[in-house]
Amino acid sequence: MRRVPPGDNLPRWVCDACGEIHYQNPRLVIGTIPDYEGKILLCRRAIEPRYGYWTLPAGFMENAESTAQAALRETFEEAGAQVELGEPFSLISVPAVNQVHLFYRARMLSVEFKPGEETLEAALFDEARIPWKDIAFRTVALTLRHWFADRKTASFGFHAESLDR
Amino acid sequence: MRRVPPGDNLPRWVCDACGEIHYQNPRLVIGTIPDYEGKILLCRRAIEPRYGYWTLPAGFMENAESTAQAALRETFEEAGAQVELGEPFSLISVPAVNQVHLFYRARMLSVEFKPGEETLEAALFDEARIPWKDIAFRTVALTLRHWFADRKTASFGFHAESLDR
Asked: What ipTM goes with this model?
């Protein structure tokens, strides 16, 4: 049940049986922008939400790992791709769903990849062929737009922002 | 109790009474580096852990807010300070405690501040007077060191890293 624990100021999930307090804070979704000779690796989702839509490899950060480890793990789990991680590129809050999305730049170490369990197919796209109408999430579309815009200037920045409801 | 829900691959807290699954993912701790004419505002902690030690204003991001809103809220709650937020400055994973710490650059809009409920006292420090031996957390010390180093070069970067156990 939800109640305000002693010393707190917001209601939390508290287990009546064992007293465990389960704080529900925003979760980090972490992924990469895998670049192979200027093409970007996208995954078509085999799970809801947004089944069948295209996304960058990404997923929920797990306990006991760093943000960089989460990015590498998700890229391998979802796309079977080995990458060299670059700098963090975008950090986008999505308050409507209590998430923060973080994407790293990444260079694919080879052209090899294969879809994981949560992916229908994976494929490399150059800018002209990105399926903009079928991108799964606004944070992914925004990240890709920033990436292609920055590439034109040959200067990759760091993009922090928030998506309104 | 902890068990592996259907379709998952890690044990999660599942309520036997209502079936609610409480995922426990890393939490974001968000704060600022409040700058007033070159001095930095620090808070002495009135709570555990690290009671009595100095820290930057920061705290757990809450649901339904953005990272920037969390930074502003915590700065006001802990230090009573109104700031103009700058760019994200440091993003430091702490896998040992399942946390990710994010600090924003911030300019104090006035010299006014006052300690909040979780703060014994707040004070402005120039670089020579930072109480390095009494800083509460490694992420805060690291962030401050990056900040003063970057200020010397008049070029503030973005620092992403992970603290080993």
From this structure: 0.89
The whole-angstrom separation of Cα A92 and Cα A158 is: 11
Dist. CA A42–CA A34, nearest whole Å: 8
| CB-based burial, A35-65: b 16+ in 10 Å, e otherwise | bbeebbbbbbbeeeeeeebbbbbbbebbeeb
Contact B68 A160 (CB under 8 A): yes
Nearest-CA distance A129 → chain B (Å): 32
Task: Name A162's bridge partners.
Answer: A93
Q: Is the peptide bond before A95 cis (omega within 30 degrees of 0)?
A: no
Averages of pLDDT over each 10 residues, chain A, 165 residues? 73 72 87 98 97 98 97 97 98 97 98 95 98 98 98 96 90
Q: Do A100 and B60 touch (CB under 8 A)?
A: no
* Cβ count near A135 (within 10 Å): 21
Chain A nearest-CA distance from B130, in A, is 28
CB contact under 8 A, B22 and A13: yes
Number of Cβ within 10 Å of residue B30's Cβ equals 30
